[in-house]
Design a protein that fits this description.
This protein is α+β, with helices and mostly antiparallel strands. It has 2 domains: 2-90; 109-336, 2-Layer Sandwich (BirA Bifunctional Protein, domain 2), CATH 3.30.930.10. Helices cover 40% and strands 19% of the residues. The radius of gyration is 41 Å and the shape is elongated.
Length: 339
Amino acid sequence: MKDQLEKIKEDALKQIEASDALEKLNEIRVAYLGKKGELTSVLKSMKDVPPEERPKVGQMVNDARAIIENRLEEAKASLAKKAREEQIRRETIDVTLPAKRNNVGHSHPNTIALEEVERIFVGMGYEVVEGPEVEYDLYNFEKLNIPKNHPARDEQDTFYINDNIVLRSQTSPVQVRTMEQGRLPIRMIAPGRVFRSDEVDATHSPSFHQIEGLVIDKNITFADLKGTLADFAKELFGPETKVKFRPHHFPFTEPSAEVDVTCFKCGGSGCRFCKGSGWIEILGCGMVHPNVLRMSGIDPDEYSGFAFGVGLERIALLKYEIDDMRLLYENDIRFLRQF
């Protein structure tokens, strides 16, 4: 029994000495000191030892256990110290190295253009109003004086969810919802995403953004509309900018017009950017149709107003001289870093 205990102790100490990982030390502890370990087996065989020898053998087993446990703790402390030193060496920070530069982003060209437009109109006393992108046909068409047989109802132009619900094709429904509230006068712009069934190319996308404006008050005339848009153009494109109104047709305004501004590249003399005309089309506008006022609960004999709408992407394309609308959506970091 003595020789067996001595051999167990020596084997255990050799294995501890050869261990190079904390996991191995744990395996040794289980193999020799665990419930099914070597020393435990010796204790279980004590019934075969003569009674007078049992105290002595028990003491030898306890001594062997104490030696193995002490050596395990020493080895564990040594390996833990080496691991800490290696970790400290590996994680040492060289304060003389140059710092890593943070890659800080910035606003998208669309966002920059939108914030500038909002700044201009808020400065004129307008409020910014938002509305749902999934809209009732009633608000997207009917209350804008667009009857059932109008070409804009064609499913090739509008995304229909069902007979009564569409993805809004303009932000004009926000104007109707605001008029229905009956809080007059109204001075508002309605920016937001709109949807039309267009093929993707350099100037079209099935999803884009519009900014539409509305003013309703007593004694509003076309002169107010012209003055407002002239000031807007000068703020956006420069103080020398002039505007030109061309007659047009929109179902929800009468009279209606399309607005051109003098080319900010050539000042109106004609260049490649304006295709030699000296003018660039930017938006559509007009006086709010009496039917639209009436359907929203406003008396057209007492109140009048004007409305206008401009594509946000069009402003960004013109302002930053971008020749392909798709660049705004492709998220090419090389392109976006230019703004």
